[in-house]
## 1
Amino acid sequence: MSLERKRPFADAKGLRAWRSCSVPARLDNDHPERHRLEACHIPAEDSSEGVYIVDTLRVTRSVSADVSQSNAAASQLPAGDTVRATDEASAVENNRMNDVRVPASAADLTAGWLRGILAGQVPAELPGLTVARIGAEFGLASELYRVHGGEWSVVVKLWDTSSVAGTREVRFFQTFAPDTGPKVPACHFAAIDDALERAVLVLEDLHDVEQGDCLTRLTTKPAVLLAQSLAALHATWWNRPELANAEWLLTMPPTSRDDAWYAERRDLVLTRFEARLNGVARDIVDDGPMVASYARRQLTDVAPTLLHRDLHLDNILFDLTNGEPILLDWALASRGAAIHDVVKLVFTIAELDDFDTVVNAYVAELRRRGVGELWRDELIRQLGPALLLFVVNDTYGKARWEPGSPREEKIIDTEITRVVQAVEFWQRRQPELFDNLR
């Protein structure tokens, strides 16, 4: 294989992640994942050209269709269901799939395909090879499969690159993953097929980890560990030239939010969440465009770093041996001020009572890693406008999100509640910020 990038995948650290969170498939205007990405401030029209490619193949649709027809049910497996690749037809399929780099569906995840892309890493024997859909209970729009044979297993992530996620997660692993700072999912294989508009990641099936849950908050110890991991990410890439060179990164704050974007959502968000938004939170949302503009001005000339940007507990695993966080789902990787990740950590992930402990842990780790320009006082100054921007963009971004499951409904309810709680908390801590908005 050849990869158009600066360092080979062979340089990657040991594989650590069994699950990578949502990367949207092709989304229409009413798909709930589109609206969740809007809440993360991702422009729906964003798309990226495939620049970094691992042996991009112009795989013909006829070959992929033939393979899929041999096992049509595999592409729509519900969570927990499996398909076996052990019969004679599968053996023929394995031979045909050796040269297919990006699978069109789960039916393409065969022993032959695995051996073709992971030369020397796949056992000679894979008894009872199964492909099982996983992650569907989290409402993922991407396709995640555990491929298991004997004692060997991997997790394969498939998605549509014509979606808002584009090719960013593949590029993240090419550019940043070997030296990210915190633990991240490392890859056996990553590739993009421009012809099929498909991408694939092959990740280790990690055990002895605990999955986070975005409907809960962290207790003190794991929140501190997450603060240190986030500081490791930000310190590693603080004002590095690679950020400017990675033109595929999203920017934060987003440049695509104009008056029209806010105007078409304002009445909807006020109507939908009016009963939940009270006091100052209601005023911030009501004056969303003005507040967002004010917040962006307060955060100019701040050194950029690499941002996760989609930081919530569904995107984090915790190592059961030492509690260390493992950060997942880098489809929204961005460059911008570190405070845009920190605001989510302190206001939506950690308990508000642990605010000072978590902030102090983050700043101390930054200092330990050589970043001397973000003292606690400066971080507190930046947190105010970052919170304002988060409140506006998060609520406006949810305006069109229609929940497709009880869990999605709970996520919306929980996140709106946390927005209000964050505003009330910060109004007690920094009332002058809100005086400036009057």
## 2
Amino acid sequence: MVKKVFMLSSILLPLFFFFQQNEGMVEEMTKAPERTVQVMSTKDTLPTEESFSVLAEKLKGIPYNGRGDEPTEGFSTATLTKYMYNRVENVQLSRHAHLQQELGEKVKKKNLKEGDLVFFKGEESTLTGIYLENGSFITATKDGVALRNLSEDRYWKGRFIEGKRLTDKEKKMLTPRTHQSHDHPAISDALSLLDRPYKLTGDTLAAFDCSFLVQHAFESMDIHLPRITYHQYEVGKSIPLKEALPGDVIYFSGTWQEGISHTGIYLGDRFFIHASGEEGKTTISYLGESWMKHFTGVKRFDHLKVDREHPIVDRAYQLLNIPYEKKGKSPNSGFDRSGFLHYVMSPYDTAFPQTLKRQWQYGSQVKEGEQQPGDVYFFRSDNNNPLPAVYIGNDQLIVLREDDGVSIIDPRFSHYWTKDKLMGIKRYEVGRG
């Protein structure tokens, strides 16, 4: 797995984008006095009868923290709004006010209702709050979480921008349970990882980046994508955005570096799930104006599904993730390279050779460009030994790597299994012996 940051185009959203979105309140931001409060976690069970007004009373006095997401940490104006919407309506909002503002329909001040979003002009960025009743709203101030009034508080009255009301469709699409048990397996797999921490170059389920999430989600469909974002973009089939379906994958450019640099799985109605650097976790986002500035294209990967109807392909595929083991000859012990190919081929040819040299000499030669699933590529190792690789279609090979065991690779994006090392391609008869 490539670990160097400059070689990865999995997304960490642009640094300038990130800093702009930290909620600043120059006039209202100072350290709040410490106090003991009864706090709740977003992991707690929320009473269905809880309202914004009831929750607001419980949160009053919690200190201001521009980077906080929970009562134990403190809140910015936007993270307070995000937290309350998650608690009351199980709706996932962004932790940044300007992205929250891209949602909803405009509401006149006189028509505001409980739960509507209210936006204000800050010194450096947009501030947000949640409307309650009789002109009052809840937000994060220098004194911590507090109630303010649109008509009576001079600071907020003079900085009011607009009110917004989320539509029913927006609430539905931003509610995780809407997408649970989705018909598209990649969406279901991605939803199971919601709220997992973001980590640039992360390649474990504990923490990961955008391209890993996409790669992992499609593996359950027998679709194996490259690890790097712009490589994924290269192998996909282009789809117009207006024709995008849930389960298609959207790509963005110029976020934290030039070129393809971020990706997410489309949920429909301009919403998508992604491992987000700016949100710090896997979340659902709206494809609004800010994201559309970086939008590059939609890709579909159905054509890359491994065809396991071929017996050799299927047998090799079943061995994925079996580790490399010197002189290993079985799944229980692990494999060396000759043991791997012998194990795959021997049920179909009892005379199949056991050594790499004889395996390379065995079978009939196939011209490059005429290969078929089940054929075997041979590459020259650094010490001139033949290295076998089972062709499974779509330019992909199943190989045995000393670091990752039995794996799927694409020579177009490999620095080791390269065309200049290709010795040749062999075809073996199935059903001999």
## 3
Amino acid sequence: MNNQQRIDPFLDTLWSERGLSHHTLAAYRHDLTRLVNWLTAIRLSDLAQSKR
């Protein structure tokens, strides 16, 4: 499973369970994408490998 495949279900859950707005979800997507890019840059390319 790639990182985008992990982010999408997470955001879907936030939308369905908490009713977050489109703008909030877009901000979360942006932040998570930046996190993935940073992890890739430090060679920890899979979110499943992160400790937290």
## 4
Amino acid sequence: MMMIFSNTTPIIALSRINQLNLLPTLFNEINVVEEVVEECAEGGKIIVPDLTQSRLYG
């Protein structure tokens, strides 16, 4: 398994198709910087997941 760092793009894309669970299935360690968590928490035109409630963060 691999460790990855993620920006918002794969998180938004996978969330959009209800497949966010693929990241922890494929990778044993996913690192997300605070700015990505904040960007997802802000939301916008595209619905993004709240990473503070996800096992991807924390």
